Amino acid sequence: MLGLIKRDITLALRSGGGIGLALSFFLLLVLFVPLSVGPDREILTRIAPGILWIGALLSCLLSLDRIFQLDAEDGTLDALATAPFPLTGLSSAKAFAHWATTGLPLTLVSAPLGYLLGLPSAGYLPLITSLAIGTMSLSMLGMFGAAVSVGIKRGGLLVSLLVLPLYIPTLILGAQTVTRTINGDNSGPTLALLAGLTLLTVAVVPFAASLALRANLR
Amino acid sequence: MFEIQNIDAMRGSRRVLSNVSFSLNSGECLILRGPNGSGKTTLLRTLAGLTPPGVGIIRVNPDEVVYAAHLDAVKPQLTVAENIAFWHSIYRTPQNGTLERFDLKDLAQRDAATLSAGQKRRLGLSRLHISGCKIWLLDEPTTSLDANHVTQFAQIINEHCASGGIAVISTHLDLPLRDAQSLDLTKFIPSALNQSDPFLDGIF
């Protein structure tokens, strides 16, 4: 399983369009917000948590359809499915590698981007914590969408349509964690719920994804 | 021991082959023959466990089976050595001289993207050796290999069978294999009469 994670991260680093695409999209999206709503500091400060979370979520979507598609096209997926390697392990490894190459870098650049939007200093710690935890569930759910649509050519749009509704709870809890901290409310419960949601997806989604893969390999 | 009893090979809802039976003991090699579209690939996918058979029984331990399909399962962004190391990590087998055996030693540090079709094919086939599995399922393994390497690969299959392995191969080319059995798939193609199912009529 470690071998698979290592290979996927190497592939994402070597074939451009993986990490760089998600990061530059995130950067541009966040930079466009002040251009469109104006430089009013008060408004920007208020919407910063939401913008950063939506930006991270949309950037995550960009590379979802590549999770299984490339392996399916060159026969690696068939070979992995017939190897003595459980499909649940394959799904988990794929989602983890996706998180390491999108969720993690997005989390790391969110702090400087938060500064650009004038995020209050109290907001940085909850922003980074909630993104680090929440993007893991985004990758897990996205991996499920990719597994469902693996046989379909140009399935990227379909993956987004399948996955976006599933992202709603993560988005609400993640953005609320930041907003509540900034407003001086107790953000503990929302962060705990977010962590619980992530743990649930980590535990359950690989099984659903392995069933979807099995059906698509026929 | 690899035993197939009365299986139907399905492609989607279509019955491609019906009532296929054979059994292979350790050291035996079976060549599947039949024209294009006669169901060789479908049968191999069924044997590999990718497609469940419509009916029938496949008696085999799935962990002992390795399947080499039309596609090579080679990652162009990785070097030859990295591709091999990856499959070793998946099958949890130690390095066992795969590079030498498949004549890839000089190519070890090359990106797989720069390989020729035949070299890529050899890298794809090396997965059989890496896996350490007993049962090899091969779908047109010699496509794009040159004559020398075809002989070399046949030798590898011979050695695999001599050491107690089993191979099921679909091929049009005559491979120089020792005592290979042959199975003509055309006799398993279901007649049009059997294909119509009164309960399915009108559904599609």
From N to C, what is the helix and strand string of chain B?
EEEHEEHHHEHEEH
Mean pLDDT figure of chain A:
91
Helix content of chain B: 25-40%
**Cross-sheet strand order for the largest sheet of chain B:** 5-6-7-3-8
The greatest interface here is: A-B, 23 and 33 residues
How many DSSP E strands of chain A? Answer: 0
- Average pLDDT number of chain B: 86
Strand residue percentage of chain B: 15-25%
How large is the count of helical segments of chain A? 9
Low-confidence stretches of chain A are: none
**Beta-strand residue fraction of chain A:** under 5%
- Which class of secondary structure composition applies to the elements of chain A? mainly alpha
Question: CATH topology of chain B, which one?
Answer: Rossmann fold
CATH C-level name of chain B? Alpha Beta
- The ordered H/E elements of chain A are HHHHHHHHH
| CATH-derived architecture of chain B | 3-Layer(aba) Sandwich
* Domains of chain A, number: 1
Radius of gyration of chain B: 18 Å
Round the Cα radius of gyration of chain A to an integer and report it.
Answer: 18 Å
The geometry of chain B reads as globular
